[in-house]
DNA sequence: GATCCGTGGAC
DNA sequence: TGTCCAAGGAT
């Protein structure tokens, strides 16, 4: 079982790591939590402008907690999965109400926050508070699968296994461990990518188990490709667009116009109401005040 | 564990 | 052009 050449990895990061705004010295825990939630299943490049605008409008959890859900949904824009915006506001409420307005340090407490799961809790503990905890995202899983196990893909995630695997790779020194996690994520994002890994530019190539094995194809189960066209997800997006891009309210007829299949349209609409992304008053549908 | 939940860029 | 996939979380 190969390990990871940490010095080579850290040196590479110093050279080509992106100067993302939330990596600047002095970035607070709330700002880091915000960017981590926004980055869930969303390319980092799309997050940056929204992150800036968001913090300008609501600098901290107290301001966000006082905001109207409608404004929060609008500010979320087209980042996708808008339920995250509602969870973020709920998270701000919990931070204010039960943590005195400060983002908690402990992973277990972070996990209690709405919209904060296994990855985000550890990302905040590590990146915001400098704790030596494994941080496992899709990039880390992929780099470890290749560099350590010699497999082309990570296979299905398993929180327990993945955490244990990364824990064994984590440098003992706290600051090194933090730098390791940032760098290995960046490597997965920039070099050891899912589609066409740029092994020629990889600082781990000479020690990589996958490269050593001749970059064998993945022989595990093919990951199910997520369809989008024609799904409820697409319909929800179209429906929400009507309110998000307009003045926040619309009659039923305006919503009906965006999707012909009444059964699916109603199902999507009901799910939006259930999620609290819309409210209904008679014939009118609105973003939640 | 499987499924659902947006959006858009890269190839 | 259609496929793939992106700093996951909740149920």
Automatic annotation (TrEMBL):
Catalytic activity reported: Hydrolyzes free adenine bases from 7,8-dihydro-8-oxoguanine:adenine mismatched double-stranded DNA, leaving an apurinic site
Keyword 4Fe-4S listed: yes
PROSITE patterns reported for this sequence: ENDONUCLEASE_III_1 (PS00764), ENDONUCLEASE_III_2 (PS01155)
Domain of life: Bacteria
Domain HhH-GPD residue range list: 38-190
Cited SMART domains: ENDO3c, FES
Record keywords: 4Fe-4S, DNA damage, DNA repair, Glycosidase, Hydrolase, Iron, Iron-sulfur, Metal-binding
SUPFAM superfamilies per record: DNA-glycosylase
InterPro entries hit by this protein: DNA_glycosylase, Endonuclease-III-like_CS2, Endonuclease3_FeS-loop_motif, Endouclease-III_FeS-bd_BS, HhH-GPD_domain, HhH_base_excis_C, HhH_motif, MIG/MutY
Entry's Gene Ontology molecular function annotations: 4 iron, 4 sulfur cluster binding; 8-oxo-7,8-dihydroguanine DNA N-glycosylase activity; adenine/guanine mispair binding; metal ion binding; oxidized purine DNA binding; purine-specific mismatch base pair DNA N-glycosylase activity
Cofactor field: [4Fe-4S] cluster
Enzyme Commission code(s) on record: 3.2.2.31
GO biological process per UniProt: base-excision repair; mismatch repair
Family recorded in the similarity comment: Belongs to the Nth/MutY family.
Name assigned to this protein: Adenine DNA glycosylase
Species, as recorded: Dietzia lutea
